Amino acid sequence: MNTAPPTVARHHASHGKLLATVPVADCPPGEVDAVVVPTNRPWGHLSTAVDVAAALSRPLVVLTSGSASPERTAKLARGSGVETLVLDVGRLPRALMPRLATTEVLRGTEFERRTDTSLKRNLGLLVSRVLGWERVAFLDDDIAVPRPRDLDSAAGLVSAGFAAVGLDVGGFPDNSVVCHAHRETGGEQGTFIGGGALVIGHESMTSFFPSVYNEDWFFLLDDRGLRRSAKTGEVLQKPYDPFANELRAQTEEFGDCLAEGVFALLDDEGGFGAATDEGYWWEFLLGRAALIEGILERLRSRRRRDDEALRMEIALRAARKRCRAIEPSLCVRYLKALAQDRRTWAEHVEKHPRAAADLRGALDVLRLTDHGAYVARRTR
Description:
Elements: E1 20-21, E2 34-39, H1 47-56, E3 60-64, H2 70-80, E4 84-88, H3 101-106, H4 117-131, E5 135-139, E6 143-144, H5 149-159, E7 164-171, H6 177-184, E8 197-201, H7 215-219, E9 229-237, H8 246-267, H9 278-300, H10 307-325, H11 328-350, H12 359-365, E10 372-375
Parallel strand pairs: 1-9, 2-3, 2-5, 3-4, 7-9
Antiparallel strand pairs: 4-10, 5-8, 6-9, 7-8
Helix pairs in contact: 8-10, 9-10, 9-11
């Protein structure tokens, strides 16, 4: 990267002005058709999602990998009486998902994303399409929902014309490592809506989740900017340690830089024109590096240095190193690939019209009978 003196960081503490904020009491009536949960953790982490689906009497789609056992998940569903489709995303049929340019841009580089969250959410979109669902709630397995009906309120806003509606995330802040450290050292830092608690409509299923950190932010975009989005209600993020290891900071940095850079333009009422200008990214990346350095300086100035401060410093150094490795040309290539992939994905999902009458039928339509299990709703 160019070593010119860094400019003032363009970090925005909040992107909240891009969203309509609607109190639950003001939402029109609505209902989600189903709850979709990606997970790679032991089945016990799904208890909240199962309880939400049970409270709403709606079907549940669980997309598993890693430590998440499809068999134990199905057993949990049977015990709750919730109609459930459990899909193991390992070794999916090759033709089920299109080849995406954004994945190829990062393949084999240090920025390649090796988690399968995006794959699961995209599969959730396909399942929703073939079932003809109009309003679907995506929910992460570490999110608590104090009032399940808030999801229905969000669905009412989707029916009223919003492309996506997120529930306001309370509890532990849902931020990247760098943004957590910024807050912890005295910086002003907000949160945004995301895939952890997001209700989307049928038309939004032509968008997709790219394999990159902040994939949910990119899902909300189209070629002109942010799709009409809102927030309502509340969910609670369960606590976790953002500074547990430096790998988290490394793997987040490219997606965090890219998303923060794009949303900074949207905040400033700009379009995507500057986002495909290498000069903009040269300036933004210098500003990002300056932001991280400023956080490190505030951290070093603390009189007391505890274990968390040490772990935070290690994570920030890892993020800074990864940030310095990002070339402005890569940001431009990725965003051009993102625009191409939006068209690729839209064409792909159009090939999957409503073709299944129920969850069991979706297994047949998508040729996933060897990858899933269906649990019927228990009737009294």
